[in-house]
């Protein structure tokens, strides 16, 4: 069966709507979401309602947690704090109830789905050394799993390592629109990239399609109406920086 994996929507309704449309054109109904539905963007309620309507298999990200409990913003920059306070005041009671009931991890067959890192809540997997540490931990704690999907960094990346070589740092796959095969004897960390706030220099929304029968996956970039999402951020009175960065992917 084919399913999609999305992450880091960040209340960007234009990006999420475009991705949902693309997923439906692919005839895929199952959507795993790695968290951060809200924070930064201007449409938190609408994005949570899409998650509910499409029955996302969703985990809770750090921004979802912070929007529920403002004490969890200690490590945030000033722009993120302004946005999360606004999000807290804007979210409806029923959408907050939805977020509060999300798990921090989903385990399904040979797959793990997390928001941030296996080494701890709010940690980042940013390079091949971090990835090596996480893959070693995954093999120790979940030896029957060979793939972990993660988000949080807003960067499209896949790391891999042979199970026979787990003491070394991981390898990073060179990404393209190609189909990637999952190899026997290797384990993987797959970040689908962000839907609503990319930070790797690409401005398009990004997600992953995984085929668990063929054991392969591919990345899909999706164009969306960036100026509209930017204008909504300005109109909501949120920091201009949050609007600007959608245009640069940084
Ligand atoms: Fe995020």
What does this structure look like?
It is a single chain. The protein is an alpha/beta fold. It has a single domain (2-248), classed as 4-Layer Sandwich (Purple Acid Phosphatase, chain A, domain 2). The chain contains eight helices and twelve strands. The chain has helices at residues 13-25, 44-53, 62-68, 78-90, 93-100, 128-141, 226-235, 240-248, and strands at residues 2-6, 31-33, 57-58, 105-108, 111-114, 147-149, 156-162, 171-172, 180-181, 186-192, 205-211, 216-222. It has a six-stranded mixed sheet. α3 packs across α4 and α7 runs antiparallel to α8 (240-248). The two termini are 34 Å apart. It binds fe (ii) ion. Residues 8, 10, 36, 61, 63, 152, 154 line the site of fe (ii) ion. Fe (ii) ion (FE2) binds at residues 8, 10, 36, 61, 63, 152, 154.
Q: Briefly, what is this?
A:
The chain has eight helices and twelve strands. Strands 3-2-1-11-12-9 form a six-stranded mixed β-sheet. A six-stranded mixed β-sheet has the order 4-5-6-10-7-8, covered by helices on one side. It is of the alpha/beta class and 250 residues long.
């Amino acid at each position: 069966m084919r399913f999609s994996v999305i992450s880091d929507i960040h209340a960007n309704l234009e990006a999420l709507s475009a991705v949902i449309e693309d997923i439906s054109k692919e005839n895929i109904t199952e959507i795993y979401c790695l968290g951060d539905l809200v924070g930064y963007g201007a449409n938190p309620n609408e994005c949570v309602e899409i998650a509910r309507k499409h029955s996302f298999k969703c985990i809770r990200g750090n921004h979802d947690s912070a929007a529920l409990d403002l004490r969890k913003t200690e490590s945030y920059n000033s722009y993120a704090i302004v946005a999360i306070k606004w999000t807290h005041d804007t979210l409806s009671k029923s959408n907050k109830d939805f977020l509060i009931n999300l798990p921090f991890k989903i385990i399904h067959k040979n797959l793990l789905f997390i928001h941030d890192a296996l080494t701890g809540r709010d940690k980042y997997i940013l390079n091949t050394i971090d990835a090596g540490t996480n893959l070693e931990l995954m093999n120790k704690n979940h030896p029957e799993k060979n793939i972990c999907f993660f988000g949080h960094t807003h960067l499209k990346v896949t790391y891999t390592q042979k199970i026979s070589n787990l003491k070394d740092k991981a390898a990073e796959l060179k990404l393209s629109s190609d189909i990637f095969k999952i190899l026997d004897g290797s384990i993987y960390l797959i970040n689908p990239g962000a839907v609503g706030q990319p930070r790797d220099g690409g401005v398009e929304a990004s997600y992953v399609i995984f085929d668990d029968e063929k054991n392969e996956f591919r990345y899909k970039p999706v164009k969306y109406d960036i100026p509209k999402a930017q204008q909504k951020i300005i109109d909501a009175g949120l920091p201009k920086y949050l609007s600007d960065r959608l245009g640069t992917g940084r």
